[in-house]
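Reply to dn_fold:

You asked what the input looked like. This is it:
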Amino acid sequence: MAPIDDAKQRLSGISRVDLRGIEPSSKEWEEARAVVAASMEALGAVLVVQDALGPDLRRALFGRAMPELFALPLDVKQSLVSGHINGYVGPRPSAPSYESVRAWETTNGGAIRNVGDVLVRSFHHVLLVFISLFVCSPMLLPCVWFICSDTVSAFATNMLGLQRKVGTMVLESLGIGQGSVGSHHDSLNYSVRLSHYGVSEAGDGMLMKSHRDPTVLSVVVQHDVEGLEVQAQDGSWLAVAPQPDTVAVIAGELLAVVTNGRMPACVHRVRAPSRRERLSAQFVSVPKDSFTVQPLDELVDADHPPRYNPCDFDGYVRFRYAGEGRKLSDPLEAFCGVAKGP
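and this is what came back:
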């Protein structure tokens, strides 16, 4: 399908493209790829109309699974902490009403694993705590198993194809061949992050300050309440309205490394002026364990010298969240950027 001529989205400055039914190498693919590439190069983000999240799955995810997950006692959720960005992440100064849970890792050798298996292992001890303390109602245990085994797994499975389609378009637009595109996809792990934002106490409805994600790509699905805002090149903010058939795909810092700076990481924030609680779900790609990220060979030559040194993902996460990177406006550049000459 051709790019969508949507006046509201033109005003926001974020391109919106319909990828339903588009096959590689077709004329429609080439047209959509051009729109995706232009928007990602300008903003690090593009809006995608899709059919990967139908009404039933959306209702199961946002109407039942996530509300009941985040209704668990705080000490139970805190017991899921397993690192700087994995497991449960609770409120912090830059996002005082934010909490989220990430299921890590959701793929194995390029094929989606049952995300429920990952979450079930994480929640197993939680269930034992509930049982031992006799504070779990009979209806809560089936709900937790429902969250773990069905809904999140279906969401991840459906989002995998969509994210890979966008990622392929981005790399193809830079002249990357299918072999290297496939190798890039094979180097990634995928995970699901479920996020809950309480009502902001800030007068402007700010829920999370501006930032870039330490990822390759993220598919962001909003539910009912506005929130996601993308920064334009002139510094203004472009609101992404929640629409049932549309997701936002945003570039992370590691895509900037892979593309040698051709595709910038999206600067974004979360703000809900309506002052309502908000839910969102993200499908995220990052490098596999122990994999070092570096610019693709095809994007480095005499005219385009490397802008980044090889980047150890685990080391970067530690630097950004527990080291000197916490104090920096551009921790990626400090960690692996190639120093510019005088």
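The longest helix spans residues 140-173.
Hope that clears it up.
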